[in-house]
Structures are given as C-alpha cells and as structure tokens.
Amino acid sequence: MRYIPETKSDHDAMLETIGVDHVDKLFEQIPSELRLKKPLNLPAPLSEMELTAVMEKFAEESEAAVKKTSFLGGGINRHFIPAAISALLSREEFLTSYTPYQPEASQGTLQALYEFQTYIAMLSGMDVANASLYDGATATAEAVLMAKRLSRKGKIVYVSKALHPHYRETLSTYMRDIDVPIVELPFDEKTGKTIFDPEKITDAMCMVVGYPNYFGVIEDLGEAKEVATKVETLLISVTTEALSLALLKPPGEFGVDIFVGEGQSFGLPPSFGGPLLGLIATGTANVRNLPGRLIGRGKDKEGKDAFVIVIATREQHIKREKATSNICTNEALCATTAAMYLTLHGKKGLPQLAELNYEKAFLLRSRLSLIKNIEEPFSGTTFNEFVIRTKLSGCELLHRLASDYKIFGGIALADNYPENKNDILISVTEMNTDEDVDKFVHALTEILK
Fold first, then answer.
1. Which H or E run includes 226?
2. Where, residue-wise, is CATH 3.90.1150.10 in the chain?
3. What b/e readout covers 198-233, taking b as 16+ CB neighbours within 10 angstroms?
4. Across-strand partners of 411?
5. How far apart are CA 101 and CA 309, in angstroms?
6. pTM metric for this prediction
7. Rounded to 5 degrees, what angle do the CA atoms 243, 98, 242 make?
C-alpha cells in the first residue's frame, strides 16, 4: 500500500460531501468537558522514507523469540507451521472471505469450516463442535453462559484455581454484571491437581477445570466427572494446548458436558498474542445452546454435497433475546488455518508430533532434575509444560536468563500465584532443539551454582 497523506483539499472535499463545514461538528455528541482542548503532542510529520527508517529502528529494539532460545508457553505455544499453509491460506478464496451470509456462493469456505468442526469433535471426543469462537478465554466464558442456560438448579460457578489465570479473569469479567458468583477450587500443592471435594461444592451451576491445567499437570477428569455427577452439575474442561488432545484421552470419553480450548497450536503463530482460535464442543442434546455458528452437510437437488449454515444463534440472525452469544464475528480464517494444519498432519502425523513434544519436555525435565537447587513443586503427570522451583525468584531467574544467555526461560508464576514466587512455567515443543536444551541446562547450572 502506498503512503499517500491526506491533503487539505482532500479534507475539505470530504467535509463538503458529508455536508459539514468543520471536523469538530463530527464530535458534537461528545460532551465538551471530555474533549481535548489542545492539539495532540505529536512530532512533525515524516516522509515515507523517514517513517520506514523510524519503524525499522523500533523493530531492532524489540526482542523476538525467533532470535533467542525460547521456552515460553502458558497458553500460546511456538510450533512449526508448514509452508503449505501460508501458500494455501493466501488464496483469495480464503483470505478475503468474511462470514458467508450466502452459503450457495461460499461452498469452499463452508466446507473448510465443516472439516474444522469434524476435526475438533474427533479430538475432543464430543458429538459436535461449532465453527469457532474468538479464543480459549472467551470460549470458556461462553461455555459457562451456555451452562447457565442448561442448568436448572445451581447458581455458582466452581473454577479450578489451576485454570489459566487469564481465562479466570475473562470469566470473572463476563459474570460480574449478571450476578453469577464464582468460587475457586484449590489445587494440591504436591501434585498440582485440582481438589474436588463434593462436601464443599454446593448449589453448583457448573465446574470448570483445565486439561492440562496452567501448571501443565494433566487433571483427572474421571474424578472431576464423578464429583460433578454426585453434586448434579455440569462439567466443563478447558484445553489451552490443543496439541495435547492428540495424545491424551479425549475429554468426551470422561463424560465432559462441554469442551472448550485454544486452537492456536494448530497452525497459528504466537504473533504478539493473536489472533487466536476458540474451540467449543458439546453433546448433541445441547447443540441448540452452542454459541456462534454451526455448519452442516446436506445434498442439493442434484444429489451433490451441499454445505450450509444450519444454526446461527447470533443476534444478527435471530431475535436478540433468543441469541445464545453476543459474538458478532468469527475466526473463520483461523479455523480454516487449523483445518489445513490438521489435514496436513493427519491421523498418524498429529499423534507423532504430540509424542515428540512430550519426549522433548521429558528430556529437559529429567536433565533439570539433576541440577542442584532445582526442584519440581508438582508431581503430577505433564504433557509439554512443567514447573520448576529454584532458590531465586522466578522474575530474577528469567531476567538473568534473558540478559546473560539470550534465553526466554518461561513464565514466572509470581504475578498470579504469589505463594509460588520462586516458580517458573517451562514449555517445550518440537521447535526446541537438543542444542536449545543443552544451552538451557548449562545456563541454569551456571546461575544456580
């Protein structure tokens, strides 16, 4: 796109076209006491060449994960993205497609979304998945709203304290103005697993638990379901690392009522935290309460496959009071990306990739266990993320790793779990080479000796 600034004549022409003599007239609805009374304190305008130079300088000051050894995770993970995905996704049939309001003209997009739904249903072990939500955090909140519609007894949402902190914060924001109380379920300080005590779970609308949880620990969904059944409430499982579903027992096989997750690992780069991809799936009996859209497959008058939007429960499509979600757009391009990623890996490739992630994490975990002054606070089984504890605060350790060894060593738990101030969360994926592991082990050995 060319850098073409707006001239005064352009400015005047636009005002004349819309019938306004001054730009201030466009802001009359804003109370005068809230308007800025002085010009913005901006530097002088720059030419395209000068602006490019300034932006390049800013870029040089940024620290990119690709230029450092990285063990960052915590809900957004770095996985390899095959070149075929960007090549296919750049086709205008996908890249410029928006919500297909005219299904007969958008068969390719609808088929891609249908395939996406099929994959997510298979991985989660649920009957049906929708055509995506914003991200894992909002999908969790939408699942609780869905549980509110389905539940006829309880009023309280019980959320594992080991669930991703951002997800809990988003859920709290959603529930704040609709008078839905949230009670946190504690986690065992030795195993890192959530404690499900039926004696302390009363008047429950639903239970929400991570799988794996924020500490990387794989929760016992079987126990969670037993308790949920005993207290007569719904169980929602949340998976922030979608690749784990290729190796773990599907949530649906435990009897989970609603599955939600984050699909970023399926072909989407970290990209400063977005765009992401919300996953949600449930049983057939609950399909009418799914938020967003559902793509179905039927037959046209010639007997050929025809893909259609069979359910669209947004206020854009039905009466507002009957809408099951206030989400007014979708992650169709991100869902299409995930469909491509899963298709390229296939039934054999995806489990193999998941096993590789587990093996690399196990290798690093084993080697770190041999270093003096490093311990693992949680004994629970993990997938590709785990927590370590040292004699230093997590923040100090990560700072030294970044500044002295050019390693992004993980995430400090202190901000969200003050009692775990010396703990860091480490993520290992197929992108971490043996050299990365050696470098990390060496750095920690030197820092902690």
1. helix 221-230
2. 65-80+347-448
3. eeebeebbbbbbbbbbbbbbbbbbeebbbbbeebeb
4. 425
5. 9
6. 0.87
7. 5
CA distance 398 to 415: 13
What are the tokens at 435?
């050299």
Closest CA to 417 of 197, 183, 189, 135: 189
Where do the H-state alpha helices sit in 263-393?
A: 332-368
**Among the four given CATH numbers 3.90.1150.10, 3.30.70.141, 3.30.360.10, 1.10.340.30, the one describing domain 65-80+347-448:** 3.90.1150.10
Residues of the chain within CATH 3.40.640.10 domain(s) are: 83-342
**Rounded to 5 degrees, what are φ and ψ at 163?**
-70, 150
Q: Is 334 helix (H, G, I), strand (E, B) or coil?
A: helix
Nearest to 192 by CA among 208, 176, 175, 210: 210
Alpha helices in 19-124 (DSSP H): 48-61, 83-89, 92-95, 107-124
Q: What is the topology classification, in CATH, of domain 83-342?
A: Aspartate Aminotransferase; domain 2 (3.40.640)
The sign of the dihedral angle between the CA atoms of 66, 68, 70, 72 is negative
Handedness of CA 315, 319, 320, 322 (dihedral sign): negative
Helix (H) or strand (E) holding 262: strand 258-262
Pairing of strands 69-70, 156-160: unpaired
Nearest to 378 by CA among 215, 203, 174: 215
What tens-digit pLDDT sequence spans the chain (449 residues)?
455 678 889 989 999 999 999 888 898 899 989 988 888 888 888 888 999 999 999 988 877 766 789 999 999 999 999 999 999 988 877 877 555 555 555 788 889 999 999 999 999 999 999 988 999 999 999 999 999 999 888 999 999 999 999 999 999 999 998 989 999 999 999 999 999 999 999 999 999 999 999 999 999 999 999 999 999 999 999 999 999 999 999 999 999 999 999 999 999 999 888 889 999 999 999 998 998 888 999 998 999 988 988 887 655 556 666 777 766 566 888 999 999 999 999 999 999 999 999 999 999 999 999 999 999 999 999 999 999 999 999 999 999 999 999 999 999 999 999 999 999 999 999 999 999 999 999 999 999 99
Enter the tokens of residue 195: 């404690």
